[in-house]
Amino acid sequence: MDMQNNRRAIHSLAIFVRATIIGGLVFLLPFGIVLLVIGRLYAAARPIGQKLHELVFPNSISNLWPLVFSVVVLIAIAFLAGIFAKSGLGRRTFEWLESALLSRMPPYTILRQMIEDYVDGDRNLATSKAVAVVMVHFDDYSCPAFLVERREDKAVLFIPGAPSATSGSVAFVNWERVEESNLTPFEVMQSMRRLGRGLGIGKG
After folding, report:
1. What is the per-residue pLDDT across 151-174, written as a single tens digit (0 to 9) for each?
2. For the whole model, what pTM was predicted?
3. CA-closest candidate to residue 143, choices 194, 192, 193
4. Distance between CA atoms of 174 and 80, rounded to whole angstroms?
């Protein structure tokens, strides 16, 4: 009997460790992609920064100024990209990319809303309809979820996991089990990292 209990404990521990590692990798993946893109952009800006350094300080052998010029070039590229993104063509390009690819990935929608909430606060949350946090009630427990899609008879929900909120599950739930909440995606993401600690439950 003890051996059987030990096997169950080891099996449960293995499942927990595997799920935690996978959840951590999924959580880190978007940040890894961002770092990879920034690294590639910096590598592209580095030669330009080196040329600017040679033009402005032709006799300097400092390694600091090429780095500074490269960062300035990188910031300038980001600024120009931001201007393009605000243009009509840029908005149409991003909307097409988002609708065709990015919006099909729930972690992207959640992370985008979390970043928007972090940058713009309550004002942006009140006007954004990208993703809403709801409470879904099951027979003997309730949990927060992200409302991904509204259907006539069902709500398509992404139920976040812990410690990585991006490693969760998708559920089709009857509307009578779904309740509006005033929680923000940022609050849920932060609370999931703490295994739910500090998560307040409030109605909208």
Report:
1. 888 999 988 888 777 677 888 999
2. 0.41
3. 192
4. 46
